[in-house]
């Protein structure tokens, strides 16, 4: 008598993860860039994520190292320069040039929707609607003192999105001042960025120079000039201190770094200030600092 061979159940085939498109206005590794990195990594556990950025930069390598697909796509980015005639023309040109590839990306990689990081990308929620895709706009900006025309323009992106995520209550309140109806479809989700693998305690005693740290973009709004003035004041009061500036300028603001270096030289602080430039790993600088300065001269969302 022949005994039938028992059938071994086949392994279940995992369901394909739905494709999700993530768009971001740059490829650096500052605040919103780092949040995008963590968001894309988390979303990749449930979706097949494709991140679209306008060009190369360190963010691309970080995303690829985490197994996230990255594609470049020309896109209009809303900035202060758009208030000037030349900037408005360039914004319009970027919108026209970026529309066909954006629609292709939406149709190919956005079946589950599109996640728009920052409100400087107003074309994407509109194109998502045209392509029949739902969109979420993640707002990091709180430009309360910006010209009203610019604030209205910046509210366009979340206004066109199906849902809005704000990184703090303050960010949402600033947005709602010019677009109050957005409150009903907005959610506050505070930023989450991975900390250092091995946190270091602060110095037990402040022996030697006081170590000041400025960490961020070198821009007039972020206030590194205030950090330099603080160091000068400390020196004049007889406090031995040093300042490290970690960060770089945005393209087009090279004049500000030159001006800042000139201020340092004119004040005789050349031996007390270090321009460390951009670095992706900020934790060693934070571990070495005694005082971290956040001297912004404008509003901060503090998400």
UniProtKB/TrEMBL annotation:
Keywords: Glycosyltransferase, Transferase
Highest rank taxon of the organism: Bacteria
UniProt entry tagged with the keyword Magnesium: no
Gene3D superfamilies: Glycogen Phosphorylase B
Molecular function as annotated in GO: glycosyltransferase activity
Coiled coil: none
Matches recorded under Pfam families: Glyco_trans_1_4 (PF13692), Glyco_transf_4 (PF13439)
Glycosyltransferase subfamily 4-like N-terminal domain location: 31-193
Protein name: Glycosyl transferases group 1
């Amino acid at each position: 008598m022949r005994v039938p061979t028992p059938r071994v159940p086949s392994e279940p085939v995992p369901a394909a993860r739905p494709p999700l498109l993530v768009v971001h206005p740059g490829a650096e590794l500052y605040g919103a860039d780092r949040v995008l990195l963590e968001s894309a990594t988390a979303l990749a556990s449930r979706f097949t994520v494709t991140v679209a950025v306008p060009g190369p930069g360190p963010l691309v390598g970080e995303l690829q190292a985490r197994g996230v697909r990255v594609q470049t796509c020309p896109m209009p980015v809303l900035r202060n320069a758009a208030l000037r005639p030349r900037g408005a023309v360039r914004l319009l040109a970027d919108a026209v040039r970026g529309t066909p590839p954006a629609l292709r990306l939406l149709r190919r990689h956005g079946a589950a929707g599109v996640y728009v990081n920052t409100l400087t990308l107003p074309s994407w929620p509109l194109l998502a609607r045209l392509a029949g895709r739902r969109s979420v706009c993640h707002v990091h900006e709180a430009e309360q003192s910006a010209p009203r025309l610019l604030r209205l323009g910046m509210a366009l992106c979340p206004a066109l999105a199906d849902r809005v995520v704000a990184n703090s209550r303050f960010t949402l309140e600033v947005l709602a001042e010019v677009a109050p109806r957005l409150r009903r479809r907005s959610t506050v989700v505070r930023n989450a960025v991975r900390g250092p693998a091995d946190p270091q305690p602060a110095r037990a005693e402040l022996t030697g120079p006081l170590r000041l740290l400025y960490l961020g973009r070198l821009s007039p709004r972020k206030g590194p000039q205030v950090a330099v003035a603080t160091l000068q004041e400390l020196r004049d009061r007889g406090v031995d201190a040093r300042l490290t500036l970690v960060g770089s300028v945005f393209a087009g603001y090279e004049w500000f770094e030159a001006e800042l270096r000139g201020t340092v030289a004119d004040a005789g602080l050349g031996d007390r200030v270090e321009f460390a430039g951009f670095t992706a790993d900020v934790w060693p600088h934070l571990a070495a600092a005694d005082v971290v300065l956040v001297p912004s001269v404008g509003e901060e969302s503090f998400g």
